[in-house]
Sequence to fold (85 residues):
Amino acid sequence: MNATYVPIDCEFHDVLEATATTGRRVAIEYLDSSGQQQTAQARITDLQAHNGEEHMLLDDGSRIRLDAIVSVDGVRLQSHQIRSE
Fold:
């Protein structure tokens, strides 16, 4: 994963906010600190900015940087679509 935070697309941020609002458990695919893809089944409890980075907080206490997200509830982050083509 890139050490420098890269802001995510505003439309995807809207998807995250809408998903958090529903309170549903969803599949979240993301890249861990070593760049390995991981999957979590969780509820998004909050979106926060911290030290110039944005994070998603999950109901299990996990914190995921938004630019590490691959997909949430089947919706892919645009930058990851480009990388996988």
Observations:
- Confidence is low (pLDDT under 50) at residues 81-85.
- Residues 62 and 84 are 26 Å apart (CA to CA).
